[in-house]
Amino acid sequence: MAELKPKTAPIITKIEPVLPLIKPRLKVAAYARVSKETDRLMHSLSAQVSYYSDLIQKNPEWEYAGVYADSFISGTNMDNRPELQRLLADCEQGKINIILCKSISRLARNTVDLLSIVRHLKEIGVEIWFEKENVRTLSSDGEVMLTLLASFAEQESRSISENCKWGIRKRFQKGTIGMANKHILGYQYDEQLQRYVIIPEEADSVRYMFRLFLEGLSYQQIADALTAAGIHTIQGNNFQEASVRNHIINEVYAGDNLRQKTFTPDPISKAKIRNNGELPQYLYSNAHEAIIDRETYALVQEELKRRNAMMNPTYFFTGLIKCECCGNTFTRKKSKLRGRTYVHWICRSKMEMGRTCVSDNFAEDELIKICKITIGADYEECVRAMSVDVSGNIHFTLKNGEQLTWKNLHLNPAKHQHTVTDAFLGKVICGKCGTIYHRSNSKNRWCYWKCYGKQKHICDNVNFMDYQLRTIAAHILGTTDFDDAVFTELIDQIVILDGGDLKFIFKDGSEKTWQRL
């Protein structure tokens, strides 16, 4: 019979009741914005503030962190939105966990700005709830939805902008649009009469300014004279050279209004640029009483032309070269570097705020040589128009209707392909000393061809990189890329003339010359 083991006493452990942890309340704020100052939108903003204040304070799990509201401010950029900036600063200080917003377009209509805000807040653990789109930024698919919806909001902003521009231009055509500048020196815009009305005491200052200009004083001298006479701008500042010029060239003092002097190509950046013919302008003659009579105004225009001609002399290429990349014209630009003066012709778009262009620039002496090479020494008498295409080629239209093209081979790019060509061995001859060009490698490992007479110090003819000879040879042979076999079959010699021009001698006895700029 098995022996019975004594029964062990059970171990008893007392389990104390655990009180549930009190979950901290989330700090919740809201953001609201309206873009225009109207009674309806002001009511909308007030309603949003009341709605979100009530919504947050009624939720027992939320702690009210305030409502941030920007009024009369566009959502296309983050500039001049003090409440948004204050909201972001409070988020960074840990004062807010969740931001409520009526819709994505209220926060930003610019996709880049929106994603920048969202990602920054995401990094510090702050979530945005967009009510209309039902999107929460900390959710897994939040950013994908935001990118799509923000793109729609940005496109909507562009569409609204185009509609507004269309309406403004229609009003320009009908002459029914008011003036943005309600007060300029000498005039106050009367909304009821829909025209400028003269302010007599200020009009005397304008006449004094124009009289000094016709007496031959410079803009700066006129500014100094106005300051000495106690005459100031409408902001109460002393006149400067630029402000005097702006008054002198303003057609409004002759009783006219020229509309659409500037325009805004991009509704997102809102950068204004001068209208140089991209859009039509509208001149309203005799729109209001003139301060400067027509005879005096005509004399001022003649004096302006005379001074401009002295300051900005015209050249043969002025207004002649059109950029095929953006449609603008080329302009002359002078610069100095290390005491040396450089003159180039560049697309005007490169000099305007908010505009960019990828067209090539041309040194003035280079441009003159291109014209002489392509047309001849009498090019100024022959050329009617010129244009530069996206490849940097220059197209000439002559007065007799003939079309000519100078091909830009881009022989001196910042970076180019490293080539070593055997087909040139023994075929490149120096036209200055008669010796053969030898292949060599430079310190930066570029392969180039050098006159053997240089080693004997009896010649100083031009060197050519292998890449350059290949490019020029392909151009002479009418091919896109250099082909060793075609070159060997057709070309007998390349003679490098004094100065760097290349004479290609074909095996059939014919010759072609490429002229170096």
Textual characterization of the structure:
The protein is α+β, with helices and mostly antiparallel strands. It has 13 helices and 26 strands. Strands 2-1-3-4-5 form a five-stranded mixed β-sheet, sandwiched between helices. The relative contact order is 0.05. The mean pLDDT is 85.
Topology at a glance:
Layout lengths: L25 E9 L4 H20 L3 E10 L10 H11 L5 E4 L2 H4 L3 H13 L3 E4 L4 E2 L5 H33 L8 E2 L2 E4 L4 E4 L1 H15 L4 H10 L12 H8 L8 E3 L2 E2 L9 E2 L7 E3 L9 H18 L9 E3 L6 E8 L2 E8 L14 E2 H11 L4 H4 E6 L5 E5 L4 E4 L21 E3 L6 E5 L5 E5 L12 E2 H12 L6 H7 E6 L5 E5 L4 E4 L3
Helix pairs in contact: 4-5, 7-8
Rg measurement, Å = 37 Å
Number of helices: 13
Any low-confidence stretches, pLDDT <50, length ≥5? Answer: none
Classify the helix fraction into a percent range: 25-40%
Please state roughly what percent of the residues sit in beta strands, choosing from under 5%, 5-15%, 15-25%, 25-35%, 35-45% or over 45%: 15-25%
Quick rundown:
This protein has 517 residues and is α+β, with helices and mostly antiparallel strands. It contains 13 helices and 26 strands.
